[in-house]
Design brief:
Elements: H1 15-23, E1 26-29, E2 33-39, E3 46-50, H2 59-76, E4 82-88, H3 97-117
Parallel strand pairs: 3-4
Antiparallel strand pairs: 1-2, 2-4
């Protein structure tokens, strides 16, 4: 069971880490998510989540989005070392889990390609 969790070193924890990504991001968007990325100098990728009450009203829906985002990231985090922030899109609360998971997989692939070009 411990292999299925996201370790602490794989999370963006400090405001300065979020600020660095927000300042100069590589962006990928669709109707479910906006994902920002920025290459880092670490030996691992990190994930930050920013699901606001303004965009996703219910706490149950925000928690579902967080679980899906973490699981999707956990399965692909070894491919490229960058910092990622996931933001909610306009249709995310109405989508199925599979639609959200597929959307995130496409975002990871796009952002890896864009970050490699930098």
């Amino acid at each position: 069971m411990s292999q299925a969790c996201l370790p602490k070193h794989a999370k963006l924890l400090k405001a300065i880490d979020y600020k660095q990504v927000f300042d100069e991001p590589v962006r990928s968007s669709d109707r479910y998510f906006t994902v920002l990325a920025r290459p880092n100098n670490l030996s691992h990728a990190r994930l930050g989540l920013a699901f606001t009450k303004k965009r996703v009203k219910l706490a149950v829906a925000r928690n579902r989005l967080k679980r899906i985002s973490r699981e999707s990231f956990r399965l692909t985090r070894e491919k490229y070392h960058a910092d990622y922030i996931v933001l909610a899109g306009s249709q995310c609360a109405k989508a199925s889990n599979q639609q959200l998971f597929d959307s995130l997989q496409q975002h990871w692939q796009r952002l890896i390609k864009q970050c490699i070009k930098l």
